[in-house]
Amino acid sequence: MSKTRIKNFFHYNWHFGDRYDGWRVRKMDTVFRVIPYFLRTRIDAQNFFEERVPIDYIETFIKDHKEEMPDLSIMHIVLASLVRIISQRPHLNRFVVWNKLFARNHLNIALVVKRSLTDEGEETLIKPEFALEDTLQDVVRKVREELDKNQKTGQQNGSDKVSKYLGLLPDFLLRTVVFFLYWTDKVGLLPKLIYRVSPWHSSVFLTNIGSIGVESIYHHLYEFGTCSMFVAMGKKSRANLLDPDGEINTTKSIMLKFVLDERICDGFYYASSMRMLNKILADPSVLLVPPQTVVIDTGVGRKPADI
Question: What distance in Å separates the CA atoms of residue 91 and residue 94, rounded to the nearest whole number?
Fold first, then answer.
């Protein structure tokens, strides 16, 4: 793990059973100890729900801060809100591999980027890494840095190159290589070259399909990798609502659809986390400053080591 990651996260001395990308969760309710053996895949454990988010205030907020953050968009605010709730609700950054529960030792969010808005336009994937203390300004800057590296048509990043080379293999050899990757991931020995470029090894996978005028969808979780949360942003919608005074007001909103792995935390924890997310989105100004505190995942069962 890099020095950057150590500075951004609580650090523990390595114990048997830990992975290079996460610490084994040893303190948990018996249900969470047992359930991964019955719900053995993320497909088995998927939960679906949606949140309609009013954006009138968010759009006003964006206009007020465009000068200091020219790239600022609704997607950046959603991203920063996800970073913030994970800093306060660390169980959201857990994952299950081979029936075992782990606390991720870093925070990154995978994003799909379309290099040009045409049917033939190339798509690529980026995976910016964030600190638990990051503000909205930090999130905008880090996403821009990743986009600058990957936006040009014909340009290839690490994810593109790995996909290209795997695609050149004959079928029988590709099956063997993919089996090897699955097996090494299960035991925590996946080559770091693959881990660094894999969008499936991330805290959250976010897709902004609203940017191409499409409503949000429920997107399945991937069995390969460690991602426990998939979020899809939909297009802007308008609705006419009747206020208490009998006046009709037009409001704008977007739909966020979530697919979550129920094995990493219980429904109450998820519900409380989503209430916090809604509260932040209702007043994104809280994202302009770092969180007052960062909450530790006590399930690891030991105190952080000195860095």
Answer: 5
